[in-house]
Amino acid sequence: MKKGVIFDLDGVIVDTAPFHYLAWKETADKLGIQIDEEFNESLKGIDRYNSLQKILDFGNVVLEEDEKERLMKEKNDRYLKLLDGLNKDSILPGIEVFISDLKKSGYKLALASASKNAPLILKKTGLLEYFDNIAEPGSVRAKPFPDIFQKGAELLGLDTAECVGIEDSYAGLQAINDAGIYSIGIGDAKILSAADMNLKSTDFLTLELINNIV
Hints:
Layout: E1 4-7, H1 17-30, H2 37-41, H3 48-58, H4 65-82, H5 95-104, E2 108-111, H6 118-124, E3 133-134, H7 147-156, E4 163-167, H8 170-178, E5 182-186, E6 197-199, H9 207-211
Parallel strand pairs: 1-2, 1-4, 2-3, 4-5, 5-6
Helix pairs in contact: 1-4
């Protein structure tokens, strides 16, 4: 049996992808770069710096590092304003019960998100108390490198083989697999075909399902 579960945040616990899209779209618009929601899918699981770089590359725009820092701060400020209305209603279906059941059954829980705003989001949704640890994204290489999931297991005091990782992005799933962690992909099975297990939505995450993973 597994002893720990390591979660991604966006698209697994809450759906903040629309907020990221709106904030990044305003940045792109100011740069004269047209992005749409399909392009935004390619940013899932990727940290702020690399998301901006993908947008710049898409628009063939080259900027100095200090300008990138300014744009990232502006984007994050817009994103935080959009998060003001976040609450328990923003939690994805079945997740609160699933997390609660895991804790009651003795599983250790960690978060491995590219978002530096993860603690704020968990606090706003009332889920922060369930998590034993949060892997700091700024201290490790970004997904698709396995570092943040390896760090999550380390913080829980577990071997990676004792953990399950849950993701909704290709980059995040690659990180889980390369960390040697059992992977559950939430969403399109074609995109997340490398997952050890695919689930259509968070509704299908249950304590029994995790208990049966060996």
